[in-house]
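Minutes, structural biology subgroup

Action item carried over from last meeting: produce the structure token record for Nucleoside phosphorylase domain-containing protein (Stylophora pistillata). EB confirmed the sequence was re-checked against the source entry. Recorded below for completeness.
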Amino acid sequence: MADTNTNGNRNPTTSNQVNPPKLDPELKVLKDEDLPTETKLWKDTKKDILPVDFLLLTVRDFEFLGCLTFLKDLEKSYQKNLGYVHFGAVGNGEKKMKVAVMKSQMGASGVGAAVITVRNAVPILRPRAVFYVGICASLKKEKLKLGDVVVCRKLATYSSIKRTEKGIENRNVVVPISKNLLNFIKNITDGWKPPLENPASQDVKVCKEGVFLSGPEVVDSKKRRDELIRRTSVATAIECEGEGLFAAAYDLDIEWCVIKGVSDYADGKKSETDSWRQFASIMAASLVTHAVKDVNVFESWPHFEDEDDSDDEDSSPRKRRRSSSRSSSSDSKRNKGTAVWTLFRFKTGAPYFDELDALSRKLSKKWENLSERLGFDPSGEIDAFKKHKGLANKAYGMLRARKQRKGKDATYTELYNALSSFGGIDVNFKQKSFVAIGVQGMTL
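Output recorded by EB:
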């Protein structure tokens, strides 16, 4: 195993071969049938396990199983708001670090994706830090080969743009990972040995200076890859969940990082390297679980603080460890006496009908007060909406009609501004509905 960074030179290795090298035969990679069959009662989980030390999040089954492969004392439990959570431990002495592993849907936003999963899980599991572990695509083919591991030092978004007659104007942001992990990853490879049958068969590199490009696309097109590289030349690798992780982690004020193994080059040949997916994921999981087992390092890191100590599994605690400065504007705003700014970036385009439906349920009891706010004649047009059955349906009919009337001008930003002073919906729900990301950082 060796370190590398995107500025250094690297000789080609056997990672150009068709299939990955064999794993250490003593390493038993878990399968579904190896997982616990009994489900621990959540009240017992709270008493015996929580809080955990680390939360590892994955998307694909082989990523999930890869993380569990390196844990001891596996158990699973079920919590209504989280679904199944698997627990295990890492460490060799009497003191061990407790690890929770969960699956999310692919991507940053959407039902069950990164933002929602992190926001729901952290207040309940109360970890010291959250990691997304799995696979990614290398954007530096000459330096980061199949099976190498990329440790996120910075994360850049790419989906926020402005299209003009002259072309595309980037409105991306790039942020470093959280402070404590930023210092920790400098030595993340200390003592780590890739779990290979023959260490000489693959020189697994670990890039500690990784800049992950994160967005909603699974890129498998050389043309699209090259376009993204031109727009964000500093990017090392590309994946889909990091954007959601750091948005939620910033809001919750908790340590976060993305660590993923290279399984393709986003060049239109993804299917040719499918055999590397599990291998790359195993390398990333091996590195993460090796790194977090040092009790002496992490004992001083705080757990996320849960404000609700009851046994009610339906409770949804939201307390943060430290308050975070916020802005409800789509413009950057400098804090006095510092060069760091806070940015809220609104979602692009227009809200989908299912989003309007969710919004209408928050507005249902005061739907008649919406008419003037949304540009309808309260003495005339409002009669059409009274025909809808149910209060929520009336509000939904109004929001849907407004979207159809305004066409391309019915954007997230425009609707947010229309509702900004309306008392029928709380600020947190509006930000969750309309804001794509809220961070401190710098523009690219």
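Discussion: The longest strand covers residues 129-138.
Next step: EB to file the record with the rest of the batch.
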